[in-house]
Structure formats: structure tokens, C-alpha cells
Design goal:
The protein has helices at about 10-40, 50-75, 80-100, 105-130, 135-145, 145-160, 170-175, 180-190, 195-200, 200-210, 215-230, 240, 250-280, 285-310, 315-330, 335-365, 370-380, 385-400, 405-425, 430-435. With about 450 residues, the protein is mainly alpha-helical. InterPro entries: MFS, MFS_dom, MFS_trans_sf, Sugar_transporter_CS.
Length: about 450
């Protein structure tokens, strides 16, 4: 009598744990804005608005550093370790923010926290893609990345509940509680099967693949592609492999796409209420537009991911950027309320929604040994757009170009991003794996099965 079959585990557990870390990410990125009014009134600090803005920028600089460092590190030592270390890191950063004694102290703490925040995202994207069914990778990734929006909602609700009666320090102390996710990650978050194969731990990888019902032969075929592409370089060095002639050109295109997406995202998040007021709408409705923008972003993340699994990320990404560009052009004109709301939602879909879709496309484009490095580099270098976006918006608002250019300035990057995606080769690493595994006819016409 044979033994019972091993119990299968669901990749959704991986998605949920990665989602929780992104919720923590979203909370911390939004909580600073919620505490700025209280920080400006902090006794003895004499914090100016410009200094408060600078402190906020330091978080983004730390985030960029975290993206660039964590991707290659995750490719080398494993995604699971980097994710757990990142959660501990930014939880400690929140705790340090809660006891800051000066603006300089808080700025340094926010930079420190940003490194931890950036440390978890490339691994979360890579792990989600690797444990998802191959025909549902983008929807799993889209669901996971909605954690940013959920984290922002949690931050807003916590601020509403606690700030009226408590110090701003309490909000950062709440952020430090994110560390409670680490024990769950330790027991239930698996290491990447692809990473294990790349590091020569084939038996452990095969056992894990069986438990999660993953195609270990496809993973091994992907590893053969990686060894061929490395041209003699250390195949476990994700960053070195990423800089080869085979992968560097597409990486540069992805960085440009992410810069364009971040210009639109951060520009609109910063300036949309002002732009709509300049277009003649009252403040109340202008703030509602910001909410509609986020709704459009969530629809873009989920709906776009489902479409990408069915029709390919490249096609849907081009479509979404064009929808964003057309929506922004429409906003430059007076529209009926219903059409106006649809246009604002389209702008969110084409900016924030396109960003998440782009990250999933990056992960699908590159093999496992440089996947973390590719996602980290695209997100990290793409953060240049998060600096340019608010600056472009401020320059246009302060110029004499006219209110139409408030929207043209962000429609142009959307069209440029769509054009860049069109220039990219359509194939992904899955296409290369399928080609490697395809059966070849023998001279007698008999087809040998792929092994």
C-alpha cells in the first residue's frame, strides 16, 4: 500500500504574505503626509514647510537605495531572507521615527526607513510571479501590489482615529508593529524555487516545487537559458548578468518607461487638486478627483493584470499608457461631470495602474537569476520620475503657458512610455523556456518528447 501523496500548498499564501508587506510599505509611505501638519506645530522644532518637504524627499531617496541594493542581494542570497530583513528594517525605522528629537533626526530616520521599504518590493514581486500559475502571474502580481493602496487607506484611518487626541509619534509606533508579520513569514513564506536551482540546491528546489505544484522542469530549463546568457560569467550574479548585451538594452528601456510612469503618478498625486482648481472646479470636488484617481489606479492594477495574463503584458501596457494620455488630454477641456470622472479614473489607470503592470512585465521578461536585480533597477532608477513629476507640475503651474498645459505636461510622458514599450522585443523568459523544451524531430521523423 503506497504512502499518501504530499499535501499541496497554495501559491496564494505567498501572495498574501507579500501583500501584507506591501500594505506595510504603503502605510509608511503615506503616514508622513498625515503627520506633516502636526510636525509643523511640534514645539521647539520650528519646522518650515520647505524642510518638511525635504524630509519627505529623504524617504524617496532611501527607497531608491533600497531598490537598487535589494534586487541583486535577493538574486544572490534568496528572496525570503531579504524580505524578512526588509520588514525588520523598516519596522525599526518607524520605531526610530517615533522617538525623533529634531528635524535632522527625523530626516535621517526617514532615509533609514526608506531603505527597508525599498528592500522588500523587488523580492515581493519576484516571489509572487514565481509561485503564481504561469497563466495567472500578472493577476497575482496585481493583487499583491494593491497593498500600496490598502496601506494608504489604513494610514488615513489610523490618522483620523488617533491624531486628534495623540501625538504624531503614535502613528510611527503603529508602523513599527509591522514586525509582527515576520514570524508568519518565517514559518510560511517559502524560498524561491528558481533561486534554489540557481544556487545549486536542486533537491530542496524539487521538494518545494512538488509541494506547490510548480513545474520544476520549466525552472531547470530557465536555468539553462541563464547559464547560456551569462557567457561564462557567474550565473548567480544577477546584476552582472543583467548588464550583458542580451539584457541591458531592454533594461534601459524599462527604466525609461518607469521614469515616465513615475513622472505622471507623482505629478498627479501632488498637483491634481491644484490643477483642477485652476481649471475652474471648487476645492471640494478637486479633492474628490484625487480619490477617483486612486480608484482608477486600483481598477488598472487588477483589471490590467487580468488582461495581461490573457493578451500579454506588452499590449495591455501600451493600451493603458495611451488611455492615460487620452484621459489627460480630455481633462484639459470642460467636460460633463460623469465624463470628467471617467477621465480622472483613466488618468489613474494610465499612471499608477500602468506602473504596477510595468513591474510585472519586468519580472516576466527576465530569468530568475537576474529578476530581482531587474525589478530593483527599474523601480530604483525609475524613481527619478518621482522627483521630476512634482517639479514639472510646479513649473507648469507657475508658468504662463495656460491651464491646458497643466495636463499636456503629463500626457506627453504617457505617450512616450507607450512608444517605448512598442519598441521592446515581445518575447518573455517563458517564451524562451518553451523554445528550449520544445521537442525536436529526429531524422526519421519521430518526435522525441521534451525532457
Amino acid at each position: 500500500m503506497g504512502g499518501s501523496a504530499p499535501r499541496k500548498r497554495s501559491g496564494l499564501v505567498v501572495v498574501m504574505l507579500c501583500f501584507l508587506t506591501i500594505v506595510a510599505d504603503g502605510y509608511d509611505l503615506i503616514v508622513y503626509g498625515a503627520t506633516v501638519p502636526s510636525l509643523l506645530d511640534e514645539p521647539g522644532w520650528e519646522l518650515s514647510a520647505s524642510t518638511a518637504g525635504l524630509i519627505g524627499s529623504w524617504t524617496l531617496v532611501g527607497l531608491m537605495v533600497g531598490f537598487l541594493l535589494a534586487g541583486p542581494l535577493a538574486d544572490r542570497i534568496g528572496r525570503r531572507k531579504v524580505m524578512m530583513a526588509g520588514v525588520v528594517w523598516f519596522s525599526a525605522g518607524c520605531a526610530i521615527c517615533a522617538v525623533a528629537t529634531s528635524p535632522e533626526f527625523l530626516g535621517a530616520a526617514r532615509f533609514f526607513t526608506g531603505i527597508g521599504l525599498g528592500g522588500v518590493v523587488p523580492s515581493a514581486v519576484a516571489l509572487t510571479m514565481e509561485f503564481a500559475p504561469r497563466n495567472r502571474r500578472q493577476i497575482y502580481n496585481g493583487m499583491m501590489l494593491t497593498g500600496y493602496s490598502f496601506g494608504g487607506v489604513v494610514a488615513a484611518l489610523v490618522a483620523i482615529a488617533l491624531l486628534p487626541d495623540h501625538s504624531w509619534r503614535v502613528l510611527y509606533a503603529v508602523g513599527a508593529l509591522c514586525v509582527i508579520v515576520v514570524p508568519a513569514m518565517y514559518f510560511w513564506l517559502p524560498e524561491s524555487v528558481n533561486s534554489l536551482v540557481a544556487r545549486g540546491k536542486d533537491a530542496e528546489a524539487a521538494e518545494l516545487a512538488l509541494a506547490y505544484d510548480l513545474d520544476i522542469d520549466a525552472v531547470r530549463a530557465e536555468q539553462r537559458i541563464q547559464v547560456d546568457a551569462s557567457t561564462g560569467a557567474d550565473s548567480t550574479s544577477g546584476l552582472r548578468m543583467l548588464l550583458t548585451r542580451r539584457y541591458l538594452p531592454s533594461l534601459l528601456l524599462f527604466v525609461l518607461v518607469c521614469v515616465c510612469a513615475q513622472v505622471i503618478t507623482y505629478g498627479l498625486n501632488t498637483w491634481l487638486p491644484v490643477l483642477m482648481r485652476e481649471a475652474g472646479y471648487p476645492l471640494g470636488s478637486s479633492l474628490q478627483f484625487l480619490l477617483v484617481l486612486q480608484v482608477g489606479a486600483i481598477v488598472g492594477m487588477i483589471g490590467g493584470s487580468m488582461l495581461a495574463d490573457r493578451y500579454g503584458s506588452r499590449r495591455i501596457l501600451v493600451l493603458f499608457f495611451l488611455i492615460g494620455g487620452v484621459s489627460l488630454l480630455a481633462l484639459s477641456r470642460k467636460l460633463d461631470t460623469a465624463v470628467l470622472m471617467v477621465a480622472v479614473a483613466g488618468a489613474g489607470l494610465g499612471s499608477i495602474g500602468s506602473s504596477s503592470l510595468a513591474y510585472g512585465y519586468v519580472a516576466a521578461k527576465y530569468p530568475a537569476s537576474c529578476r530581482g536585480s531587474a525589478v530593483g533597477a527599474s523601480m530604483g532608477l525609475g524613481r527619478v520620475g518621482s522627483i521630476l513629476g512634482p517639479s514639472i507640475g510646479g513649473w507648469v503651474v507657475g508658468s504662463s503657458l495656460g491651464s491646458h498645459w497643466n495636463f499636456y505636461a503629463f500626457a506627453i510622458p504617457a505617450v512616450i512610455a507607450a512608444a517605448i514599450v512598442v519598441l521592446m522585443p515581445a518575447s518573455t523568459v517563458d517564451d524562451e523556456v518553451a523554445e528550449v523544451r520544445a521537442p525536436e524531430p529526429d531524422p526519421g521523423g519521430v518526435v522525441e518528447p521534451a525532457r
